[in-house]
Amino acid sequence: MTDYNRKRVVVTGVGAITPIGNTPAEYWEGLLSGRNGIDYITAFDASSHDCRIAGEVKNFDPHEYMDRKEAKRMDRFSQFGVAAAKQAVADAKLVINELNAEQVGVIIGSGVGGIKVMEDQQTIYLNRGPDRCSPFMIPMMIANMAAGLTAIHTGAKGPNNCTVTACAAGSNAVGDAFRIIQGGYAQAMICGGCEAAITPLSVAGFAAARALSTRNDDPTHACRPFDRDRDGFVMGEGAGILILEELQHALSRGAHIYAEIVGYGMTCDAYHITSPVPGGEGATRAIRLALKDAGINPEQVSYINAHGTSTPANDSTETAAIKKALGDHAYKIAVSSTKSMTGHLLGGSGGIEAVATVLAIANDQVPPTINIENLDPECDLDYVPNTSRAQKVEVALSNSFGFGGHNVTLAFRKYV
User: Fold this and answer.
1) N or C: which end of the chain has fewer CB within 10 A?
2) H helices within 160-253, ranges in order?
3) Annotated catalytic sites, by residue?
4) What is the pLDDT of residues 368-396, one digit of tens each?
């Protein structure tokens, strides 16, 4: 498609269910204040686990968004996704009815899907036999159900999909939705990511892979991206959803515009199932592709919401990729990891981090990376340590990388 046929796409609504707040306003306030959402796991008895800490969503009541019967038939990840989607639709003041339903679509990514339901039903199967398994097990478990249920709850009948690219899933969902609107296949898309994988088996599996922090004696300081003493990521849960709209459609209904989404780059390392390629070659290409897609020069970038997982491999590799992609200008860019406060939402991370990136542009404020005490010598950029910063944010990037070598960069800018 030639550039002059590509439709402009803007963000008109956001929704967020996170470990530091269950609305976009609470989430944003939590980010700017450096609120830490990480504590000891309460969802199950983690006393025998190597990692006993996580960023759990607190005080979430699904019945604010659906009736009790519906909530009972959803895994927690779908509850999060539907709730954040309803917030975003309401925030955008987007009315979905018979006249436009086929022009509104949904793409919501998840890395793991309904793992809690799978674990619970496996226990029932082993203890009580196959006849006692729930008839709702499969529709509660499968990863696409957050997207399907969001369509059911909002009436969106347009393109519907689920990206399952590990920790890049939420960002792939936003990027793919962007492409659908650019190409004229929908007027609006509900997109982002959700996850609820703080379960005994999931935590045990990530710990066995030596991916998780074991700073169990100090949970509030366990997630410390770019810090010399980081020892692994901390799991989080929740959902982040954006409403993307074709510009003229948004203007015709007088919608509030947070920012414009202008670029999408995705690549694969083709290197290792869990480790990034040394030097960050795949991530570098994703950043460059997003900038090229957006028609943006490196010197225009003000802020990067980093993947910033707090693992030894990611943070130094991502830093190297940013420097390769942006050259000397990398040292003039504010870079922060909001995972330092929320933990790592896996497939949901790209959703809440895209929300954070858009709000940074809309408010000209950059959230911090908390828990930086001693920078890793290989991590030598401006990570906005410990305190948020007021500054002009014209162009911002959001990075997400996933097991399997998936790399995604989204580019946003102020709408003018």
Assistant:
1) C
2) 169-182, 200-208, 247-252
3) 167, 307, 344
4) 999 999 999 999 999 999 999 999 999 99
